[in-house]
């Protein structure tokens, strides 16, 4: 049931089974700055978080940065063409090393060099070289040059971050000893890897800043009960009644059937849209009516704001007119959703509501709330 | 007219076709920094209705000197981007130019993201 903030009612846990009870995640978990802080540890430092697409960095030495909360990692292709991730922090005295480098505009370097005192690292993270002032004791009267200890390349190398992939999609995990990506992804891994995702190029990135908690948008993404009333253009040509929601441990999928799809010969998937949500903040959008796919990263800025990083992948980074139009329609859809979630968030922020309730068909949203609660309690 | 259109301060990224209404000029700078970090794009002012006449001055330093007379405690960096936006510069271009002047010792920051001429 709904619980108003009338000073009497305490909140309850998210219902274990949404078919007989309907408790949502209590409202304070969407609005409290302390919860935002807590999530950096309990959610974003514990689960596998999407870092970017392998196709953006094809050559050895290509790299981009990705910031998760207040931590930034460098994702790089090493000399053996393997993928690695490191904290963007120098092993000498902790300087940030490379500048912010988005995946849309990757860098290339044959080693990672810290600009502060020029310690330089191999692409596998080992310390490659230091300037002479770290090898000789010229300025220190108490030390002979030959007594200066040699720095072991591995022990003084960069701090590596766990990295794994689903097809060309790269994920990082900031935990020291995380569960495997395969475990978190479950059957999603095999399902996504059955698509030739690597044959597609990043063609567009749209970043928007939205005034609501990241979970508010995530919940909106996860259901289409609001579509009929709010996405007139989109639902045209879609059989909503034939839609299907599938919920697994850490992901859920919304399936929709278009009246008409794209030609099967060149398409990933014909006529069937699939929207995958992968906890905590990644989505993969299979359109079924365009030969391409999209991804969303739903990155919190603070408790009341997030940025939506929307990437679009097509066979060719140069879009046809039709594809451009398609992407614009998708952007329009985003704007419609932003209005909805900002409005919802205004209501939530007013503090009138202590705990919302979920509908019986909102079992995808329920899974999201349950995972959040589980993460907080762990 | 919805709330976004009513706003007096709006920044936009032409590449992303994204607009953002803000309350405070320096929030434009913060937005730009976040946006640039993720996209490499440059953000610009779409609308900045500020009180008072437009600011005289040709180059960046004299514009900041002019503004200094009007505000206390240093000129918000965002306000400088507005003034330079009127002169055709994006927020990123202004920030780069400001940095260069700071490195030359011609500006300083009495507090974070607020400027004064030396
Ligand atoms: S902090 Fe990086 S070289 Fe000194
Ligand atoms: Fe942009």
UniProtKB/TrEMBL annotation, chain A:
<dbReference type="InterPro" id="IPR001663">
    <property type="entry name" value="Rng_hydr_dOase-A"/>
</dbReference>
<dbReference type="Pfam" id="PF00355">
    <property type="entry name" value="Rieske"/>
</dbReference>
<keyword id="KW-0560">Oxidoreductase</keyword>
<feature type="domain" description="Rieske">
    <location>
        <begin position="49"/>
        <end position="172"/>
    </location>
</feature>
<dbReference type="GO" id="GO:0051213">
    <property type="term" value="F:dioxygenase activity"/>
</dbReference>
<keyword id="KW-0411">Iron-sulfur</keyword>
<keyword id="KW-0001">2Fe-2S</keyword>
<dbReference type="Pfam" id="PF00848">
    <property type="entry name" value="Ring_hydroxyl_A"/>
</dbReference>
<dbReference type="GO" id="GO:0046872">
    <property type="term" value="F:metal ion binding"/>
</dbReference>
<dbReference type="InterPro" id="IPR036922">
    <property type="entry name" value="Rieske_2Fe-2S_sf"/>
</dbReference>
<keyword id="KW-0223">Dioxygenase</keyword>
<keyword id="KW-0408">Iron</keyword>
<protein>
    <submittedName>
        <fullName>Aromatic ring-hydroxylating dioxygenase subunit alpha</fullName>
    </submittedName>
</protein>
<dbReference type="InterPro" id="IPR015879">
    <property type="entry name" value="Ring_hydroxy_dOase_asu_C_dom"/>
</dbReference>
<dbReference type="GO" id="GO:0051537">
    <property type="term" value="F:2 iron, 2 sulfur cluster binding"/>
</dbReference>
<dbReference type="InterPro" id="IPR017941">
    <property type="entry name" value="Rieske_2Fe-2S"/>
</dbReference>
<keyword id="KW-0479">Metal-binding</keyword>
UniProtKB/TrEMBL annotation, chain B:
<dbReference type="InterPro" id="IPR057410">
    <property type="entry name" value="HVO_B0008-like_C"/>
</dbReference>
<dbReference type="InterPro" id="IPR036388">
    <property type="entry name" value="WH-like_DNA-bd_sf"/>
</dbReference>
<protein>
    <submittedName>
        <fullName>Uncharacterized protein</fullName>
    </submittedName>
</protein>
<dbReference type="Pfam" id="PF25214">
    <property type="entry name" value="HVO_B0008_N"/>
</dbReference>
<dbReference type="InterPro" id="IPR057409">
    <property type="entry name" value="HVO_B0008-like_N"/>
</dbReference>
<feature type="domain" description="HVO-B0008-like C-terminal">
    <location>
        <begin position="65"/>
        <end position="115"/>
    </location>
</feature>
<dbReference type="Pfam" id="PF25215">
    <property type="entry name" value="HVO_B0008_C"/>
</dbReference>
<feature type="domain" description="HVO-B0008-like N-terminal">
    <location>
        <begin position="10"/>
        <end position="47"/>
    </location>
</feature>
